[in-house]
Design brief:
Elements: E1 10-11, E2 20-21, E3 36-37, H1 44-54, E4 57-63, H2 71-74, E5 85-91, E6 117-123, H3 141-153, H4 164-177, H5 182-189, H6 194-198, H7 205-214
Parallel strand pairs: 1-2, 3-4
Antiparallel strand pairs: 4-6, 5-6
Length: 217
């Protein structure tokens, strides 16, 4: 490994100097209590998801590209941080930071890159503690909306673009298509009549077309 920047590293393929093969097969949580992640741009999103899965703590170095696929995973609208971003440091002197490796044609090595680099401090820890609800106490519409709104905001989405009724219809449709007893999911959905329940069920296209096919239309 003649391009190694640290004494400890992972490699995609076997090498006698690597600690492990394929970093994504390792648990990044609690290894050294601090992690520096400088991935190729095409692996940034994968690194973020792996950091979330491992609930790791570390610093991610990425270019400041608001139009990139990974950007909404780190920032909301108006550059607000998502919940696991603790702080961001912006670098301007790229010539003092970027060091060319074996790939001299990379835009980061040949001087083509003129943007900014960000060092993003990430802390992936559970934000909430959870407890079981009391028996037969239903979750209110308002509280459900708050939960969905919070989760959507982490991906830069607004609750105003979605409706909880679509979730209700989706669950009813999935139950029907998986041959769940109509009486059973009527009870779970708290519908008072079969007519109300059936209004939330959407038959798939093939079943809808089967009527016309059987009639020879």
């Amino acid at each position: 490994m003649n391009n190694a920047k640290f004494g400890r590293l992972n490699s995609l393929f076997w090498d006698p100097n690597t600690s492990a093969i394929d970093a994504f097969t390792c648990n990044w949580n609690g290894d050294s209590n601090w992690l520096l992640v400088v991935p190729p741009v095409n692996l940034v999103s994968k690194c973020i998801y792996h950091l979330v899965t491992c609930k790791a703590i570390g610093t991610l170095v990425v270019p400041k590209w608001p139009s990139s696929a990974f950007w909404p995973l780190l920032f909301k609208k108006k550059l607000e941080y998502v919940w696991f971003v603790r702080d961001v440091l912006e670098f301007h002197a790229n010539d003092r930071i970027l060091v060319a490796g074996n790939n001299k044609n990379s835009m980061f090595a040949n001087g083509t890159f003129k943007g900014l680099l960000l060092a993003i401090d990430l802390v992936f820890k559970s934000r909430n503690s959870f407890s079981l609800r009391k028996k037969n106490v239903c979750l209110s519409y308002t509280r459900t909306r708050e939960i969905v709104s919070t989760d959507l905001a982490e991906f830069g989405c607004s609750i105003n673009d979605f409706g909880l009724q679509s979730c209700r219809a989706g669950r009813a449709t999935a139950a029907a298509q998986n041959d769940i007893s109509g009486r059973l999911f009527k009870m779970h959905g708290r519908w008072k009549s079969d007519r109300a329940k059936d209004g939330y069920m959407l038959e798939n296209l093939q079943k809808r077309l089967s009527v016309s096919k059987n009639l020879g239309i």
